[in-house]
Amino acid sequence: MPHKHGALTDRGTVRAMPAYQFTCEAQPEFLPEQSDAARGVWVFAYTLTIRNTGKVAAQLIARHWIINDASGHSQEVKGLGAVGQQPLLKPGESFQYTSGTRLHAATGIMRGSFFCVAEDGERFEAEVPAFVLDAGVTGTPSRVLH
């Protein structure tokens, strides 16, 4: 139940809501029509939803991804924005985009973060929990690793 200064916990006490917080949720999808197992290429799309769950408007500035596949191949991706955009999100607003990656194996794990700057100048990181890319799993909700 919402409270003007935070959220009620299961014990009925008020827990302070962070002023600076984005939550991120990924939905991966295997793309068999763009993959070629004989050549060792598996292609995945992922749709990411980023929601400002804090109290202050903030802008997504840069991304950082670490992608590992079952063959032992690892790649790191850094860059400005997400799909060429640097959205400014007010509390409660969200931004969704779809992008993709190529693996050298049928399964892998992807995790990352976004560097953000709030309207008041505060800088913070928004973590993207690790999610599984699996060519054997299609049309099912993502498995999030904790």
Structural commentary:
The protein is mainly β and 146 residues long. The protein has one domain: Immunoglobulin-like, CATH 2.60.40. It has no helices and 11 strands. The protein has strands at 2-3, 6-8, 14-16, 22-30, 42-52, 58-69, 74-80, 88-89, 94-103, 107-118, 123-134. The strands form 3 sheets. Strands 6, 7, 8, 10 and 11 form a 5-stranded antiparallel β-sheet that branches. Strands 1-2-3 form a 3-stranded antiparallel β-sheet, with no helix packed on it. A hairpin with a 4-residue loop joins strand 10 and strand 11. Mean pLDDT is 88; it is low at 1-8 and 139-146.
Q: Flag low-confidence runs.
A: 1-8, 139-146
Mean pLDDT: 88
Going by CATH, the architecture would be Sandwich
List the secondary-structure elements in sequence, H or E.
Answer: EEEEEEEEEEE
Which class in CATH terms?
Mainly Beta
Radius of gyration: 17 Å
Please report the distance between the alpha carbons of the first and last residues. Answer: 26 Å
Coarse structural class: mainly beta
Might you state the CATH topology name? Immunoglobulin-like
Write down the domain tally. 1
Q: CATH H level: which superfamily?
A: ApaG domain
- Residue share in β-strands: over 45%
Broad shape: elongated
Let me know the largest β-sheet.
5 strands, antiparallel
Q: Count of DSSP E strands?
A: 11
Helical content (DSSP H or I, runs of 4+): under 10%
